[in-house]
Amino acid sequence: MIILEKETDKFLLCHRRDKDLWNLPGGRVEEGESPWQAVLREIQEEIGLSSLVLEKLIGVHFKPDKNDLVFTFLAFKNNEEPILTDEADNIAYFSADEMPKNTAVLQKERIIEFFKNKEIKKNDVVFFNQINK
User: Fold this and answer.
1) Is 60 helix (H, G, I), strand (E, B) or coil?
2) Does residue 121 come out as left (phi exceeding 0), alpha (psi in the -120 to 50 range) or beta?
3) Please, what are the domains in the chain?
4) SS3 108
5) Is the pTM of this model over 0.90?
6) Cα torsion at 114, 15, 18, 110 (round to 10°)?
7) What is the pLDDT of residues 58-114, one digit of tens each?
8) Which helix H or strand E contains 91, and what residues bound it?
9) How far is CA 132 from CA 13, 39, 62, 95, in A?
10) Which of 1, 3, 29, 90 makes an SS bond possible with 38, Cβ 3.0 to 4.6 Å?
C-alpha cells in the first residue's frame, strides 16, 4: 500500500526487522479475506494504523516466478501516527527522489510507477508483470 502525505507528496516506508530492507507496508491475503481487508489488517499489524481509508486500487502486479498477485492500494495519511512493531524497526516518509538505496526492488518499481502515473494524471489501475532480477 502507498500511504501518501497529500501536502508533501511523501510516502511511507517501513524498515523491516528481519532484513535490512525498506518496503511499503502490506502483506499476504489470508484464507477468507479480501485483498482490501488483508491490506488494512497488515497495516495495523505492521505499523499500528487502524483508521486508514483506502482511496483506490492503483495497481495489480503479477509475479510469475511465485504465481503471486500483488494488489497496490492508495491511502492518504491522516492524524493517526504509525508505531514501531515486531515487524518494523523504523518508519519514515520519503519523497520519490530520496528513497533509501536498500528499498526492496519490486517495491521501488511500484513507487516509481505510482508517481509516473500520478504525473500524467492517469487514473487507471495498472496491470504489470514483476520479475525478480
Assistant:
1) strand
2) left
3) 2-129 (3.90.79.10)
4) helix
5) no
6) 10
7) 888 888 888 888 999 999 999 999 999 999 999 999 999 999 999 999 999 999 989
8) strand 88-94
9) 20, 22, 11, 24
10) 29
